[in-house]
């Protein structure tokens, strides 16, 4: 192969490669844009999928009732000690001793959002919220207590109606 033929072949290869690159660039240029202008669009077009796991929360009814029986199954299911269920034994009106939730501690800083805790809960007392703006300057602020102050266990008959966020 003489040098002229080699030159023509190389020229053809590089021109072809240039057109392939340009075609890709034009395709991307004309594609519908998906860039989110965050945080400017926070209250307008920002869409966070409902099932996005951003933070664990305890379900509370409007009357400040929760559904946690302090069984500790979520704590046991958690792979990295993110949950600590603090409970105490109390006597009810009939004199029966019952375990009662005191504090439901959750460390957002170490949660890996695996949802094993939610799956383990027999009472659907906890769930994930998609509220993702949880950045803080001090790590301690990620240590949260999920049961609201003054909240109590819902009576057995009470159904979950219009649960409000903790
Ligand atoms: S989502 Fe996973 S890591 Fe986070 S608290 Fe639940 S079990 Fe633990
Ligand atoms: S949140 Fe559910 S699994 Fe965890 S202690 Fe309460 S009832 Fe048990």
Can you characterise this structure?
With about 170 residues, this protein is α+β, with helices and mostly antiparallel strands. The protein has a domain of about 100 residues: 2-Layer Sandwich (Alpha-Beta Plaits), CATH 3.30.70. About 25% of the residues lie in helices and about 20% in strands. The protein contains three helices and seven strands; from the N terminus they run αββαββαβββ. The strands form three sheets. The protein has a three-stranded antiparallel β-sheet, with no helix packed on it. The chain has a two-stranded antiparallel ribbon with strand order 1-5. A two-stranded parallel sheet has the order 2-7. A hairpin with a 5-residue loop joins strand 3 and strand 4. The longest helix has 28 residues. The chain is elongated. The termini are far apart. The C terminus is likely disordered. The structure holds iron/sulfur cluster (2 copies). The site of one iron/sulfur cluster has 14 residues, from helix 3. The site of one iron/sulfur cluster has 13 residues, from helix 2.
């Amino acid at each position: 192969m003489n040098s002229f033929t080699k030159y023509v072949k190389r020229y053809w290869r590089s021109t072809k490669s240039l057109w392939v690159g340009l075609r890709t660039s034009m395709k991307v240029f004309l594609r519908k844009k998906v860039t989110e202008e965050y945080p400017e669009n926070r209250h307008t077009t920002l869409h966070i999928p409902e099932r996005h796991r951003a933070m664990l929360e305890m379900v509370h009814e409007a009357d400040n009732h929760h559904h946690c029986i302090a069984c500790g199954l979520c704590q046991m299911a958690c792979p990295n000690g993110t949950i600590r269920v603090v409970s105490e034994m109390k006597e009810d009106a009939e004199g029966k001793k019952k375990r009662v939730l005191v504090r439901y501690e959750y460390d957002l800083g170490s949660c890996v959002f695996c949802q094993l805790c939610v799956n383990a809960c027999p009472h659907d007392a906890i769930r994930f919220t998609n509220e993702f703006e949880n950045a803080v300057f001090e790590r301690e602020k990620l240590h949260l207590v999920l049961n609201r102050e003054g909240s109590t266990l819902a009576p057995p008959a009470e159904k979950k109606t219009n649960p409000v966020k903790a």
